[in-house]
Predict the 3D structure of the following.
Amino acid sequence: MVTWKKLAAVEPELAKIGCFLLFQHGVGLAFLATIRKDGGPRLHPVCPVLADDHLYLLITPTSPKRYDLLRDGRYALQSFPQDKEGSEEFYMTGRAECITDGVLRAAVFRATKHIASEHEVLFELKIEQVMHTRWENIGTPHIRPIHRKWRTSRVTQYANSKL
């Protein structure tokens, strides 16, 4: 798993696109998928926060998604659709890590652009894979998605190639 900062270092264009799509409305907006206790999926709208080049979520203490992430940190995050024809999409998966450090919490709260409570639980989204999708031939029978994908295994390959 890597941080958003590491993603931006190894795939700057993909991170820039992801940042644009996650924060296209000013405030971060995305859908978060988590895994319920019974193994089923759960989907939630969330407001991601980018602070010091790391991607975070603030989650209310009684939210089912909080319990899901504490029990099984796996997640998927999907950007909100754009309100235009041929909208692009950004998707990422990984593990969320609960953050309790007071100094870090304060920095994230300063960067937050939505209404947040000091009681919310802070999670950092560590990244395993990302995918950017754009659409070609909109409105025709030849419509097709064009995907650009990245996985953390590429970081290892990149690091090994620099040895």
Notes: The radius of gyration is 16 Å. The chain has one domain: 4-161. DSSP finds five helices and eight strands in the chain. Residues 158-163 have pLDDT under 50 and may be disordered.
